[in-house]
Amino acid sequence: MNEAMVVAQKENQTIIADFEQGRAPGAFHHADHVRVAFAYASEFAPLESMTRFSAALQRFALSKGKPQLYHQTITWAYLLLIQGRIARTGARPSWEEFSQANSDLLTWKGGILERYYSPAILDSPLARQTFLFPDRGL
Question: What is the mean pLDDT of each run of 10 residues along the chain (138 residues)?
């Protein structure tokens, strides 16, 4: 592992440790969520990243008094998109490389999930509680 990869790995591990202690980067807007999800996807196998990030995000929302904001379908859909794009690179990209090459994931309003999900699905209580497969664009 080269020096840049070691630095990126330490950065990811710090972000994960901070997040699991209830500290989030920035104002924790959409792009900040994607940054944290990228750290989990970079450091753990898919199922572990989904389990750990989901649990940490739920705890974070609860600690802020907003547990109703957690959304299982959105969380898992973004993690799956991030993991797939990391895998396609054939390497371990830094956050800077990844975010530059995948800027479409950083847009919230009118973002990528609208390509795959109808508002009826994403706005449903069921989609908040459990992962639902996309209903469009397949």
Answer: 85 96 90 97 96 96 93 97 94 93 94 95 96 88
Question: 0.85 cut: is pTM over it?
Answer: yes
Domain count of the chain? 1
Range of the domain at 97: 3-107
Residue 68 lies in a domain: yes
What DSSP string runs through 16-34?
A: HHHHHTT--STT--HHHHH
Residue 11: inside a domain: yes
The span from the CA of 55 to the CA of 57, in Å, is: 5
The answer to whether residue 116 sits within a structural domain is no
